[in-house]
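Study this protein:
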Amino acid sequence: MKSTISRDTTLFDFILAGVIFAKKVKTFTSKASVGLAVTQNSGWDSNTSLLPIIPQIELGTSIKKYILDVSTKITDIKSFSDYTISEMIENNGIESFEALTDISCMEMNYDLKFKYIKLGFKFKVIGSGSRTNPLTIMINYANEKPFILYEYQKCLIKLPELLSLHSFLMYILEQFIDNLDEHLGSVSLLKKQEEVYFEKRIHDFNKSETIISLFKKQVEKFPNKIAVRYQRGGITFEELDKKSSELATFLIDKGVCSGQVVATTLVGIDAIIAIFAILKVGGVYLPVDKDNPHERIEYILSDSFCKLLLTGNEELSKSLKINTILYDDSFVENNVNLNSFPHIDSDNLAYIIYTSGSTGVPKGVMIKHSSVINMCEAFINDIGIDENDIIQQFASHSFDASILEIFGGLLNGCTLVMVNHEETKS
């Protein structure tokens, strides 16, 4: 079986098959394609044409058949070195042209310096105008040991991304060699240590956790630690828990129930108190930027079926056809029923954030508690933050980046330092 591959294909065919498959699984495309450099001379010169290779990638196909199919396509493409772009698009669709603006592969055949041969691969930065592609993969097998040169535009691709791609490509090719008669769908996309890591993440992820339950854990751990700073003021985790519970009780008294959308235009510490209060009653947090056009605010409130708005802006309160609560943190101090809140679980909606509407009307994106918890887990594992860190909260609450800043910080015991956007404008 392996002799058939060796006899009917070249090393270039084999590696190119790996590149195309790696691109497919990395980009989730149904028709993965790359640009194939077709030339009669060695090196990249005026006689080189760049044509797309778009093999069929069926996961039920054997690895051996897939490699042979790629090899056949390479042979066919080499006979069309004078193919024009217009002919190419007409015969193969626009994806054939897109292949030429992404990754290209080139076969080379000249001697290399020993230090390059010993390493087996090298990365080289190229100028944005020296290639049509952000990434060109040159495969050289003139010497006994094959060599891969990655030429890339660093304005579009970072070196760690290339290192990851090379490692992934080598892993794919190793599996191709060892499992020629297996189907493509059997190719593992994760190395053993990566599988162990993700299995641990899945095992550790507690689906019963909610934003509020995780917040309560931080309150128990760091009751007197400053949770949020804004301008010259601050509030501890324990104070934030108490004030949000007071406001939550007030909201229940006003008829707010589980699953109800509650909007807020509050900023600073008041905004954080309102967010946790809304979540404690099982409500769905809807951030609204008071500086948005009036028409956008009205549309968001209507589209989300929001019936209540918490705001500190009296003028806005009077201008909207919706029940509003003009927020004043002093009016909830006498509420003492702090813990009789509805039961919520990880499948409950936590918040709705609306898109900019640049391609039409704004669209609401609904996110569950479980998604926020998963993000916070990733924040710890992938970024490496802990309770000793300070997180700057810069993004407007109407943008989803604020969710990562607020919950990624507070649910991990960090101190949140909020930016005063009025000051940044002056």
